[in-house]
Structure formats: structure tokens, C-alpha cells
Amino acid sequence: TRGPQRSQVPTAKAAPRARFSVMDAARLAIADGTIDRVHSVEAAFHFDSRDAFLADLRRVLRPGGKAVLTDIAFRRDLGGGVPAANIWTGEDEYRRRCEAAGLAVARLEDITERTLTPFFAHLRACGRGAEAVLQRRAMAAYYFVVLEKVAAARE
Q1: For strand 61-74 and strand 104-110, is the pairing parallel, antiparallel, or unpaired?
Q2: Which H/E stretch holds residue 100?
Q3: Residue 45, SS3?
Q4: In the beta sheet, which residues pair with residue 68?
Q5: In Å, what is the CA distance from 15 to each residue of 52, 60, 61, 112?
Q6: Which residue has the higher pLDDT, 23 or 117?
Q7: Which residues pair with 61 in a beta bridge?
Q8: What phi, psi does 67 have (nearest 5°)?
Q9: Where does the pLDDT of residue 52 fall: very low under 50, low under 70, confident under 90, or very high at 90 and above?
Q10: Other C-beta atoms lying within 10 Å of the C-beta of residue 80
């Protein structure tokens, strides 16, 4: 695995108690129940698979720990970047799969109109209208997601 990129070094210095690591997100080399926060930006749809990533989030998060994601739901792949297992049908399926992984969905917000829609307009303005059409047909929604590992009830 690679170390932090040069652009990450100032962030690491600004957060001296934070640890930054590069690893397979679906097979995290982290002990169970040791992480307070996980951030994933426009990445989970690439993982093999998003379900495995969610299950591993559940495993590594401490009770009360949170994962904050921005994620894109795809209708279909655009050429090898989105595994078939990550083609989900929308918000209901997204919520159901997070909950099936044992994570409470604290927030699931469709932010497509503030993200993808302006992005597609930018592509068209730059003379890349055909690309905008292809991407819009493939991408169903852009979500802001907050997941939480709920403490297990004592029996």
C-alpha cells in the first residue's frame, strides 16, 4: 500500500490525534470496535463490494461510532469502475442494506440537485454534452449518509 499523498500531509499535521491509513476498505486491517469515525467521499461505489465495506464498518466502529459518506447510486456501470454488486436501486435499497449490515441510518439525504446536476451542467458548458448524458443515465442519485453503530442491548 502507498503512504499518504503529499496533499494529505497538512491535514495530518492539523489533526495530530488522527491516524491516516491506506488499505482495502472492504477488508480493513483494524481491530474490532476501535474506530470513532470513518469518512468515505465518493468511494464506496467502487469497493468490492459496498456490502463488504458496510459490514467491516460495523466491525471496526466503536458503539456510538459514526461513518460519514458521500456516495453515488448507479443504475449501471460506465465501463468497469462500479462492480455489479454495487448497482443499487435507490434510497430504500441503500437504507435496507446499511441496516442489514447492522448500521443505523442516522441520515440519508439525496443531494443530487446540489451535486450531480451542476456537474452535468458544467460538462455541457465545457462541450462535453455527450459525456454528461452518459453519466446522467448511469447515475441515479448522490447521497450524503451518516451511519452509526448502535450499542448492543444488554441481556
Answers
A1: unpaired
A2: helix 91-100
A3: helix
A4: 39, 146
A5: 28, 21, 19, 30
A6: 117
A7: 35
A8: -120, 130
A9: very high
A10: 6
Q: What ranges make up the beta strands (E) of 21-60? A: 35-41
Report the alpha-carbon angle 43-46-48, nearest 5.
Answer: 125
C-alpha 71: how far from chain center: 4
pTM for the model: 0.84
Closest CA to 144 of 48, 65, 40, 53: 40
Distances (CA, A) of 121 to 67, 77, 111: 30, 21, 15
pLDDT above 60 for 90: yes
Query: What type of residue is 131?
Result: E
CB 35 within 8 A of CB 62: yes
* Cα 67 to Cα 104: distance, rounded to the nearest angstrom: 10
Residues with Cβ within 8 Å of 32's Cβ and at least 6 positions away in sequence, in order, are 59, 60
At 28, which amino acid appears?
A: L
Answer whether 106's CB lies under 8 Å from 66's CB: yes
Distances (CA, A) of 53 to 15, 24, 26, 98: 25, 9, 4, 10
Q: All 3 cell numbers of residue 50?
A: 459496498
Q: Which three cell numbers stand for residue 97?
A: 442494506
Distances (CA, A) of 11 to 14, 15, 21, 69, 90: 5, 6, 13, 18, 33
